[in-house]
Specification:
The chain has about 230 residues and is an all-alpha fold. It starts with a helix and ends in a 28-residue tail after the last helix. Helix 4 packs across helix 5. The protein is elongated. The mean pLDDT is about 80. It has one domain. Keywords: Membrane, Transmembrane, Transmembrane helix.
Amino acid sequence: MFMRYIYPQPLDSLFIESLHHVDLTYIKKHEGEQDLRPPYAPALERHPYGTNYWNEMFQYLKRTWNKIKIAIILYFLSLLPFVGVFVYPVASAYALIDSLGYFPAITIGVFMYVIPGTKSFTMVFLESLYSSRAMMRELLEPYFGRIHFDAEVRRKWFMEREGILFGFSMGFYPLVRLPLFGMLFYGVAQSATALILVKTTEPPPPPGMEMSYKIDYRYVDPRNKKKE
């Protein structure tokens, strides 16, 4: 993931080519039909890719440090008498609320507390959860490197798609961690991210109109789309 901030062009080109392929497949599948969505790739390419590499690299290192800091704090809190046994189950439930909802997240937290010997598993699970979210952020960089929303709108964008992005990133994260083949699977994930974007987000507005494009109209639930 760090390579993106050193030489982002290959992954960005892969993402755009994948969008072109998705558009072509969509047009062929619905040939002769009316009211098709506009092509996604040309709409996104109208926005020049531009980012402050040093700032983005600094933010990446900052997020990595925060993740390490949280892991250290949780570990030492888990060593406390009486309350230590609750630390990882509560942290796991809290981390999953946005993705799964309150009841499933709390249920998982209770199981982690009830079942003995789950501390090491929970530590790995939390590390994988936060790392997969960071990976998803990096995979979407070709989109956000062109569509420059402010921090609040960007946060809402991720929250609206929390469940879909969670399932996608958790599926690819173990594959990306594989030795030797990890970079190959990261490339596959980058290509597949184009499809996730098309399925959940309408094509972007013309340059300069990003902030006037209401957040309520940007999310598209794939289950409610008429044309797939």
